[in-house]
Amino acid sequence: MASVIISLGGNVGDVRDTFRKAISNVCGMTQAALIARSSDYATPPVGGVPQHDYVNAVIEIDTDLDPHALLFTLHRIEQKFGRNRANEIQWGPRSLDLDIIAYDDVTIAKPELMLPHPRAFERAFVMVPLAEIAPDRVIAGKTASEALKGLSTEGIRKLPDLD
Asked: Is 16 a catalytic residue?
């Protein structure tokens, strides 16, 4: 089994309900065990496209799927929840974004998949929830806690738990 960190994001529709359903789909369609789930965080959008704040979270799963099969499955789940990667604006609004941040200690550098995620350490919206569930997880030689120290968390706020 591989230990995988996946980030979730979205700002269209009932994102928190989408997360709940998407996590269930991730576990079911990848035959994965959910190891940890962060809180949800409201985060300002990046990239300069005017839009609503995002909701972001991170999960850790254990799966037997290889990285490429996992990526394919995550893209299918995104489509199921209304994402059309071919017709979207880069860094624009979306119903669901699922990114593989780390897959064990695997390093892959291909156009369709780069592991660990090449911009994860630049993104407080990934590092804040990751540091919540796995502060000592080492990715590319750094822990989430170490990476977070160099990032601004301005505008990021933890959302209350849903009951």
From this structure: no
